[in-house]
Amino acid sequence: LSGLDPAQPYFQGTPTEVRLDKSDADFVDIIHTDSAPTIPNLGFGMSPAIGHIDFYPNGGKQMPGCGKNPVSQIVDIDGIWEGTRDFVACNHLRSYKYYSDSIIYPDGFLGYPCASYDLFQSGNCFPCPKEGCPNMGHYADKFKDKIKQDFLKLYLNTGEARDFPLWRYKVTVTLSGRSKVKGYVNVALYGSGGNTKQYQITKGTLKPDNTYTAYIDAEVNVGEITKVKFLWNNNWINPTLPKLGAATITVEAGQNR
Asked: What percent of the chain clears pLDDT 90, i.e. is strictly above it?
């Protein structure tokens, strides 16, 4: 039984007989997309974990792409009717859009077990544990026999628009060069499953021999990595023509460590 942002008003905090609960089926998985408190943010969905596994994409409160102004949203790709409805309840309705996308991406929407969204964002709950991460949506039940605790909270990020799934990587870059400069470092990944755009790993003072780490949510499952593209820029013309390189770049995929 999959709960798509089950309702908060009149249901949150009520007895289990009244609301959706994990006693309702052999396996109950929940997608929380609009769990901000009803007042002042007018959230439609409930926040507590109530299933065997509970997914909180983007933290479960504010979905990317839902903060757009009403005009751009209403004339969005989905047409006037869907755009109008989405503007009123965009976060709430993301749950079924993620679910329908999950049918097409059996390897997508990995939920990372974590105590909070902030810890997930900072990389504390990366990579997936030994038993793997469940997939939010249609294929969540593949994880049914691996659940070891009463409530399992899972976090992940999604894209702003279709296609929604993102794949998480840890990218670590050690710089080489002679002198420190100010600027930024970008890395793009190339692999058997496709290529990513450039992601910023760090910006500010770049010091040779220093190591910089970032967690990126890529729009494609790169598969086996065949090459990486490294780019640095110091944003302005420097008469000393500093040179920087990457001594090493390490990439770790969340799903298979």
From this structure: 70
